[in-house]
Amino acid sequence: MTRIILERHGQSVGNAMRKYLGHSNLGLSELGREQAVLAAECLKDVHIDAIYSSDLERAYATALPHAQLRGLEVKTSSQLREFYIGEWEGADVDWLVKERYDEFVLKWLGEFGTFTFPGGESVLDGAERMYNALVAIARENDGGVVLVASHAAIIRAFYCKISGIEPEKMAEAFPFPTNASFTTVDYDGEKFIPVEFSHDDHINIDKNVKMQTKVGKIQAL
């Protein structure tokens, strides 16, 4: 059995500015860097054999404190990136709500699993990309424990996929994972087994806000 700990990056500059980044490459905010350190401290006594990350700066900077504690390198891959969001790259959340309400609120947030970004990637294609990348990582580290730093929506889509959630029901099944949270899965050589989604006790947040679903909580990617 191979264990994979998926960590969403800490608060990014895009999150702080309420912008949708997708593949746009901005780093962590000051709070995000603090969250990355807290997350690494939380796992300091957990044995980790390898560390991987999306090649985008906000994910790499989140993985780096774990690597520094252990003297490991961070292996990066574009296959672990967030969705490519096409025309929405760099867009303000408030603008999307106002000017793209049907697409953004009703279809992206309200439906999620059946959505395709305008000029970008579909949720199902992104989930498949992430699935294939994590299968390869699990097989490269058979029987080990691996930390993978990635992004909110792609982690959510992957977890829905391995949980057997139909695309039409994904929006109601799981929310976006919180910044610097851990989502844990096991790989038995044939399939992924969900263990825990968006564990964030190490991050000081309002638990009453955390688990809102559908359109209740609008996050920047």
How is this structure best described in words?
The protein has 221 residues and is an alpha/beta fold. The protein has one domain: Phosphoglycerate mutase-like (Rossmann fold), CATH 3.40.50.1240. It contains nine helices and eight strands. The strands form two sheets. The chain has a six-stranded mixed beta sheet. Helix 6 packs across helix 7. About 6% of the residues have low confidence.
Short description:
The chain is of the alpha/beta class. It is 39% helix and 18% strand. The protein has 9 helices and 8 strands.
Query: What is the ordering of alpha helices and beta strands?
Result: EHEHEHEEHHHEHHEEH
Supply the helix-strand structural class.
Answer: alpha/beta
CATH class descriptor? Alpha Beta
Helicity range: 25-40%
Estimate what percentage of residues fall within beta strands.
15-25%
Which key terms come to mind for this protein?
221 residues; 9 helices; two-stranded antiparallel ribbon; alpha/beta; Rossmann fold; 39% helix
